[in-house]
Amino acid sequence: MKKKLIIAIDGPAGSGKSSTAKAFAKYLNIPYIDTGAMYRALTLKVMILNIPFKNVKQIVSLFKKTKIDLKGRDPLKQKVFLDGKDVSKAIREPELTKNVFHVAQEALIRREMVKRQRQLGKTNGAVMEGRDIGTMVFPKADYKFYFEAKPEVRARRRQRELLATGKKVSMAEVMKDIQKRDKTDIERKEGALRPAKDAIRLDTSELTIPQTIDKMTALMKPSHVRAVNS
Ligand code: DC
């Protein structure tokens, strides 16, 4: 029987989590779970329904009736569905990105989210990326990685991502945005961004995705890499 491996990857925006986590899940042939996409999808629903972000209890009860699915076997082509509708593009809009923190900062909402994420990971194992995976969602994950990168590298990556979706933003603007997101991520009361005590810290500034994956697999038990990748 395959071992249900849980690999937690946490880190700030632009640290290289998403691209590496997708490629790593594909390499290991296990599910990829983008927890940020789940916070984004719920935020989209709150925005569509025009619910004030301060109505936390209303948002929690709405969330309980909301379906959020990550679909597609290939992690590189994964789609996000909200109540059956493909919202993969809508959840990446800058206007939405600015608002996710309202939802992500509320402990009551996070607890519901964490429950779902545990359920998703438990079924088939996962490479799960986010901010609190190693500290809150799976404190007993088989492996915990915490990604970091130099501010200018993170900003350049973010700028490139935006450009790929047709949005031209200056380096100064991207830097400012990243600093703001870091602050809200770090200062949150519950589920704050921080490395778990037993996390392996990786600076990805000078690394390509294959080089990052090489570093990760080198730190894993060969039987774990083989067991899932066969
Ligand atoms: O990784 P991302 O940029 O798609 O995340 C979107 C937002 O969700 C970001 O503001 C941080 C928040 N988030 C969180 O609070 N906890 C997670 N596990 C994942 C994301």
List the helices and strands and how they pair.
Elements: E1 6-10, H1 17-28, E2 32-34, H2 35-48, H3 56-64, E3 68-71, E4 79-82, E5 85-86, H4 94-104, H5 107-124, E6 126-130, H6 133-137, E7 143-148, H7 151-164, H8 171-187, E8 200-203, H9 209-218, H10 222-228
Parallel strand pairs: 1-6, 1-7, 2-6, 7-8
Antiparallel strand pairs: 3-4, 4-5
Helix pairs in contact: 1-9, 2-4, 7-8
The protein binds 2'-deoxycytidine-5'-monophosphate.
2'-deoxycytidine-5'-monophosphate binds near residues 35, 39, 104 and 191.
Written account of the structure:
The strands form 2 sheets. The chain has a 5-stranded parallel beta sheet with strand order 2-6-1-7-8, sandwiched between helices. The protein has a 3-stranded antiparallel beta sheet with strand order 3-4-5. The model has no long low-confidence stretch (mean pLDDT 94). The protein is an alpha/beta fold and 230 residues long. Strand 4 and strand 5 (85-86) form a beta hairpin. The chain has 10 helices and 8 strands. Helix 2 (35-48) packs across helix 4 (94-104) and helix 7 packs across helix 8 (171-187). The chain has one domain (6-216): 3-Layer(aba) Sandwich (Rossmann fold). The chain binds 2'-deoxycytidine-5'-monophosphate.
